[in-house]
């Protein structure tokens, strides 16, 4: 799934946000799996986005969009209702405060977000891809895995590579690595990559110079080259990563968007292995490069079958070590999780806890939280509980937008690839 030209209140913040690759490396003692490494784009990720089931895969009242498959077929194949778009109450307030000191009031706002979703069933695994757009100006890209685990026959030595999950069946240990392309345009294309973190500093107390205290202090750094901005998984990464503009907000701070990565990834394949070149993007939690027209993707559909001499070797993007100051920048974000299958993965892996993603958050981009202007805001003072002026929750019976539910239909088995058709 890819989205382009994402704007907030008319101003572009993202040129491209897209899924690049999904990769797994398996452990086993059996010949059929000991060398197994899957690069899913080689067989197509989007081509397996079949129809979504109303009320299960997406809310019943969501808007559904068709997609078309153009390769491995003599004519375009339509997949009905394979993307859904819906507004979602995230189940917690976006912000709120109850004041019980001196002046009594309540102010809050429901966290209603716009969700784009598709689910791709790539062989045994189903990946649920979500792009979520928040009223605070944040954008989230995330993935959850479900479906069937890939397993092997239980033999001597198998338990070094997983757990028994059924009679004579081993659930094999494996990694999941997902790469996203995040092409942010923060107030234009002349951007910088900055990090922020904290350190404790022993400071003298101004009113008692002979007394000291350890106080948190802001640590800021601007990274200048692609190699400096290639943040490996096996090193400590600053907790705040920013694509910034040299333009400032009202308070004099550089306007920026923060990359907040959620990942529970396993270890990457050692670089000493020749096939690692096809998945070199997974070395990095975040890698920021200068935009080039010849560096559009981090992987290739040809990588699986040419894994030792890949068409796209992402590490080459970083080797030339170009300047990333005052440039059009692209962030390549890798997330994922280590999967050690267990008995609760039968019959299917659950989505709970099996995923990762990246949250793009405004950081000094605005002068204040932009959701303050949303009509979803609620403000209550003593005596105004029933007023509709600042509390739409009191007047839901007057709402004009109510969902019109479509009848349940399903055509997901149309256009499914049949092995007998390819013989």
TrEMBL record:
GO terms for biological process: amine metabolic process. The keyword Lipid biosynthesis does not apply. Gene3D superfamilies: Copper amine oxidase, catalytic domain. One of its GO terms (molecular function) is quinone binding. Transmembrane segments: none annotated. Belongs to the copper/topaquinone oxidase family. This is Amine oxidase.
């Amino acid at each position: 799934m890819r989205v382009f030209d994402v704007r907030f209140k008319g101003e572009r913040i993202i040129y491209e946000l897209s899924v690049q690759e999904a990769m797994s490396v398996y452990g086993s003692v059996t010949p059929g799996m000991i060398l197994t490494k899957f690069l899913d784009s080689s067989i197509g990720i989007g081509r397996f986005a079949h129809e979504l089931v109303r009320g299960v895969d997406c809310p019943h009242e969501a808007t559904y969009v068709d997609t078309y498959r153009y390769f491995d077929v003599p004519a375009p194949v339509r997949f009905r209702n394979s993307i859904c778009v819906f507004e979602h109450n995230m189940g917690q307030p976006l912000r709120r405060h109850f004041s019980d000191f001196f002046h009594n009031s309540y102010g809050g706002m429901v966290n209603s977000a716009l969700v784009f979703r598709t689910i791709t069933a790539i062989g045994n695994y189903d990946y649920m891809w979500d792009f979520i757009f928040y009223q605070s100006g944040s954008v989230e890209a995330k993935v959850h895995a479900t479906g069937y685990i890939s397993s092997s026959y239980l033999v001597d030595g198998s338990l070094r590579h997983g757990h028994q999950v059924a009679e004579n069946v081993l659930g094999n240990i494996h990694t999941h690595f997902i790469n996203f392309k995040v092409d942010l345009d923060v107030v234009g294309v002349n951007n910088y990559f900055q990090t922020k973190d904290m350190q404790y500093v022993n400071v003298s107390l101004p009113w008692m110079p002979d007394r000291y205290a350890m106080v948190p202090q802001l640590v800021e750094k601007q990274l200048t080259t692609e190699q400096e901005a290639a943040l490996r998984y096996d090193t400590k990464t600053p907790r705040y990563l920013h694509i910034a503009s040299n333009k400032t907000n009202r308070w004099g701070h550089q306007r920026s968007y923060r990359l907040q990565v959620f990942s529970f990834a396993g270890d990457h394949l050692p670089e000493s292995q020749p096939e690692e070149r096809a998945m070199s993007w997974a070395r990095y939690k975040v890698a920021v490069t200068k935009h080039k027209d010849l560096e559009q993707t981090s992987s290739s559909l040809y990588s699986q079958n040419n894994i030792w001499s890949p068409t796209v070797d992402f590490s080459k993007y970083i080797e030339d070590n170009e300047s990333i100051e005052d440039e059009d920048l692209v962030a390549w974000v890798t997330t994922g999780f280590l999967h050690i299958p267990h008995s609760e993965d039968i019959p299917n892996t659950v989505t709970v806890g099996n995923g990762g993603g990246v949250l793009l958050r405004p950081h000094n981009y605005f002068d204040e939280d932009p959701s303050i202007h949303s009509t979803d805001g609620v403000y209550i003072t003593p005596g105004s509980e029933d007023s509709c002026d600042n509390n739409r929750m009191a007047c839901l019976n007057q709402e004009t937008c109510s969902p019109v539910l479509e009848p349940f239909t399903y055509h997901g088995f149309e256009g499914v690839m049949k092995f007998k058709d390819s013989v």
